[in-house]
Amino acid sequence: MSVTPPVNGQVIGQAHYATRAVLERLLATTGTTFHQSVALNVIADSGETIERVRLVDRMTGTLKIDAEAAEATLAELSAAGLLEEVPGSTARVGLTPAGRDRRHANSTGIADITARLYADLPAEDLAAAGRVLTEVTARANAVLAGA
């Protein structure tokens, strides 16, 4: 009989790294890094254009990377033709048609993986896990902020 451990950093980390490995394998098929996929998603979720500074802030806050690493990711996306400055603005960036296509391909694959990983888990268990992990994230962010 296997015993289910309570939620702790080790359990969370194991789930993170296992699902991240699955995601990385998928993203590799489209030539996208994890950081690039996050940037593409943030832009797409913001209506396909966003202020560059806001995008960098979202990436640094979410990924816990510095602004230099976020800017390097944006440079990679620009060099790959997936991201461009919005015409008439030096402060906003947006997805190119190729960027939209890449994000769509990644999202389709992620939806398939998500369905397979979460398919038969009870909705109430997923809701409880979501509440707990959201609170743990908020507390960790507070510690990082020095609160």
Describe this structure in words.
The structure is a single chain. The protein is mainly alpha-helical and 147 residues long. It contains 6 helices and 3 strands, in the order ααβααββαα. A 3-stranded antiparallel sheet has the order 1-3-2. Helix 1 (9-28) crosses helix 5 (97-118) and helix 2 packs across helix 5. The protein is globular. The mean pLDDT is 94.
What share of the residues lie within helices? 55-70%
What does the largest sheet look like?
Answer: 3 strands, antiparallel
Name the shape in a single word: globular
Radius of gyration: 17 Å
Features:
three-stranded antiparallel beta sheet, 6 helices, 3 strands, 147 residues
